[in-house]
Amino acid sequence: MDVILRDISEGDSDWLHGLNEACLPAVNQLSQKDLWALVRKTAVTRVAELDGQPVGVAMTLAPKVGHTSMNYLWFDQRFDDFLYLDRIMVDDRARGAGIGKALYQDVFQFAATLPGIRAVTCEVNLRPFNAGSLKFHAALGFVTVGEQETEGGKKAVSLMRRPVGV
Q: Of 120, 122, 104, 133, nearest to 162 (Cα)?
């Protein structure tokens, strides 16, 4: 099965909200209206399809777009040369089919086309500990550039950066 990647469209709104809800608590809960407002802020939101059905999404933000996520702000206050991967979500039924890797590669290629962008950034949970995600990100060339606690200390994240063109 081939993965097809495309830009998101307004017709994806219901599907995107359903996927976001299914991915809780790995992503934060947003109303459908707020999730679509986030899409409008993105540098690019890409959808992965298998057999003509959407099964994954990657949402990216450029610097200085007024996003209020604590992790985005960590990067925005320290760097001006990044593309932040706000969320990447894959439908449980499509896990293991290479969707996540295809979306990451697509984000890396997109970042390489943007003037002044020298890195892709994201965060990975340290509390609760996500060993699989840390290993996956390290294999893609991400390195930790910081750590912070979120949600009043209930969570902790590794803030990661991967140079464009690696």
A: 120
